[in-house]
Amino acid sequence: MSLKGRASGGGALTSTCNAVGEIFKIAAIMNALTLVGVAVGFVLLRIEASVEEAE
Fold first, then answer.
1. Digitized pLDDT (tens) for each residue of the chain, 55 residues in all
2. Name one GO cellular component term (predicted).
């Protein structure tokens, strides 16, 4: 009987931990996408500057 109580409590705790893990995974992906976007923006700025300088 106590095992059933533990299983249901563990299930709720496990689902909460899974949600927290998913949130942190998504946050890490969003940070990576932001950094990649900033890097691409700087590369485009450098390309634009070199094209303007060549003209």
1. 455 555 555 677 788 888 888 999 999 999 999 999 999 999 999 999 999 998 8
2. cytochrome b6f complex
Distance CA 25, CA 19 (A): 10
d(CA 46, CA 5): 62
Q: First and final CA of the chain: distance in angstroms? A: 81
Q: Is the pTM of this model over 0.70?
A: no
CA-to-CA distance for 28 and 4, rounded, in angstroms?
A: 36
Which two tokens mark 28? 């890490």
Query: Which residue, chain included where needed, has tokens 């109580």?
Result: 5
Say which amino acid occupies 20. V
